Each structure stands twice: as structure tokens, then as C-alpha cells.
């Protein structure tokens, strides 16, 4: 079961993903085209990982972060391939699929590192 501290942390990571998505249009630094084209995919995928983490919390597979990552990746890739599930307009670009994967990997690595750090702190 997810602790209250983990729930708050996950909500903050979801909000961080949304914030990057909303603010990407204001970016004017280096690699402008790349950032504006793919940061949305990366940030939404990052947030979806933590959203899936909430829904998987009550299942046996919920403790396996790799299954959580796989489900999140399936969701974002299907969204991309089906043009927003037919509900939203989406511009398909094969690099978007890679950006989605990177967002999920970043979320998984961050989640695992924080879990390890939390375990080390509890042992002290």
C-alpha cells in the first residue's frame, strides 16, 4: 500500500508533468524546436506513470514498478498511434513514441531512486 508521503510525492510529480506541458509554449532557449515538439510527450508520459501508480496501488502487480511502467507506456503509445484515441487531435511523429518512452523511463528511475533513498533513511 502506498504511504501518505508517497501519494503526496506522486501528486507533485503529476503536477510537475502538467506544468511542463503547460509552460513548454513559453520556452525560448536552445533547441527550441525539439523542446516544443517533444517536451509535451515526455512530460505527459512522466505524469501518466505516476497516475497509473495510483490505480495500481490496490493490485498485486502494483508493487512491481516495471509493470506500472509497461502499462503507462502502453497507454501513451496507444494514445499516440490512435491519434488521441479518436477523441483528440494528435500529430503523429515516430519520434513522439521515443519521447514517450524516455518520459516513462525518467519516471521509473526517479521512483526507484526515491524508493531506495527512503529505504536507506528508514534503516538509520
Q: Report mean pLDDT, rounded to a whole number.
A: 88
Largest sheet: none
Count of discrete domains = 1
Which regions have little confidence, pLDDT < 50, spanning 5+ residues?
none
- Tell the overall outline: globular
DSSP strand (E) fraction? Answer: under 5%
Oligomer: single chain
Rg, rounded, reads 15 Å
Total count of helical runs of at least 4 residues: 4
Assign a percent range to the helix content. Answer: over 70%
Overall SS class: mainly alpha
Notes on the protein architecture:
The protein is an all-alpha fold. The protein has one domain. The protein has helices spanning 4-23, 32-55, 65-81, 94-123. Helix 2 packs across helix 3, helix 2 crosses helix 4 and helix 3 (65-81) runs antiparallel to helix 4 (94-123). It is globular.
Jot down its keywords:
single chain; mainly alpha; 4 helices
Q: What's a concise summary of this model?
A:
This protein has one domain (4-123). Helix content is 73%, strand content 0%. The protein is built from four helices and no strands.
Amino acid at each position: 500500500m502506498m504511504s501518505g508521503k508517497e501519494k503526496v510525492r506522486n501528486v507533485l510529480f503529476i503536477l510537475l508533468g502538467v506544468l511542463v506541458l503547460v509552460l513548454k509554449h513559453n520556452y525560448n532557449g536552445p533547441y527550441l524546436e525539439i523542446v516544443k515538439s517533444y517536451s509535451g510527450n515526455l512530460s505527459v508520459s512522466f505524469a501518466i506513470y505516476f497516475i497509473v501508480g495510483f490505480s495500481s496501488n490496490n493490485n498485486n502487480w502494483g508493487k512491481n514498478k516495471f509493470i506500472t511502467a509497461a502499462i503507462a507506456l502502453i497507454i501513451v503509445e496507444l494514445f499516440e498511434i490512435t491519434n488521441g484515441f479518436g477523441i483528440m487531435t494528435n500529430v503523429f511523429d515516430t519520434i513522439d513514441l521515443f519521447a514517450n518512452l524516455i518520459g516513462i523511463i525518467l519516471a521509473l528511475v526517479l521512483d526507484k531512486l526515491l524508493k531506495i533513498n527512503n529505504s536507506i533513511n528508514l534503516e538509520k
